[in-house]
Amino acid sequence: MENLPYGALAALVGLSGGLVLGLAARLGDFCTLGALESSIYGGDHRRLRLWGIVLGTAIAGCYLAQAAGYIDLSQTLYQSVRWNPWASIVGGLVFGYGMALAGNCGFGALARFGGGDLRSLVVVVVMAVFSFITLNGPLAPLRITLFPQIGAESSQNYADLISGLTGLPPLAIALPVAVLCFAWALSYAPLRRSPRRLVWGLLAGLAVVWAFVGTAWLADQSFGEVAIEGPSFTAPLGRTLIYLMTSTAGGITFSVGSVIGVMAGAFIGSSIRGLFRWEACEDPRELGRQVTGAALMGIGGVVALGCSVGQGVSAFATLAYSGPVTLACIGAGAVLGLRHLIGGFQPG
């Protein structure tokens, strides 16, 4: 292990965390769009309330790790860049609407592809391409003009904000928030009777903490060569695609490891449950809808600096200003998209 380059070590951190998240998707039914669909149209709130377990675990774990000196959350992307509310709102809405059209977010598409759904491979590739079109390609100048990313000069999280007003340490702010997340989740009796989901919700939250702590240790050891990262699946899809095609453009990184880990975990999980089966798209209109949705997610995710997992879990875990706002806008965009689809709207 000592002879491995730091990028490879970061990839192993991402691979192990991604493996757990992929298993959580398949064995614990952890899915953003699926949670909204089953809650709104199926009357089953277990998957939605599971988010309380994931977030409660991630928030408590991250702030306990910071209090213990294992990580400085201010060095994460979500807090080192000045929060742009419009980027969170516009990017979140665009991402959420695209998620509904595509039938999955980037994380969900990776998990479904790991289960044999070839349609999700189309979503992953198109989303990866459009994320880099927006990040560094033809749409980059427009993105930079409309949603400039400026380094933060002050704290960008709710825990430090409230700490400054009350004098309480950030941990004393974060732990009650985590408790509220757990209470919201466990107040729903059907979820309490689903130990499988509860266990995988805890493990998914711990996977996020592991990612931050692992990359923080590597960042310290490498003198900043490795960035402190949590799981996210928008621009990392593009980085992984480029790496698989060229083995260059930044080389192997945490992003590459986490993407491959989710697919591997999903494959293992779907195989354990006997759910692995090859599926393909037979309806050209469905394919057009998925391509459109994937393109929107690639654009929206880069604008918002993260996806339903990147902002909705990783940024939320640090209590960054952007996390709850972006997650709420992703949810609103997804609900709007689902209503359009149910009403018969078909793009293209």
UniProtKB/TrEMBL annotation:
It is found in: Cell inner membrane. InterPro entries: Sulf_transp_TsuA/YedE. Belongs to the TsuA/YedE (TC 9.B.102) family. Keywords: Cell inner membrane, Cell membrane, Membrane, Transmembrane, Transmembrane helix, Transport. The chain crosses the membrane at residues 6-27, 48-66, 86-109, 121-141, 161-186, 198-219, 241-270, 291-313, 319-338. PANTHER family: INNER MEMBRANE PROTEIN YEDE, SULPHUR TRANSPORT DOMAIN-CONTAINING PROTEIN. It comes from Acidimangrovimonas pyrenivorans. This is YeeE/YedE family protein. The keyword Acyltransferase does not apply. It comes from the Bacteria. Pfam families: Sulf_transp. It is a multi-pass membrane protein.
